Amino acid sequence: MDYINAFWVGGLICALVQILMEKTKMLPGRIMVLLVCSGAVLGAVQLYQPFQEFAGAGASVPLLGFGNTLWKGIKEAVDSDGFLGIFMGGFTASAVGISAALIFGYLASLIFQPKMKK
Question: Is the pLDDT of residue 94 over 90?
Answer without folding.
Answer: no
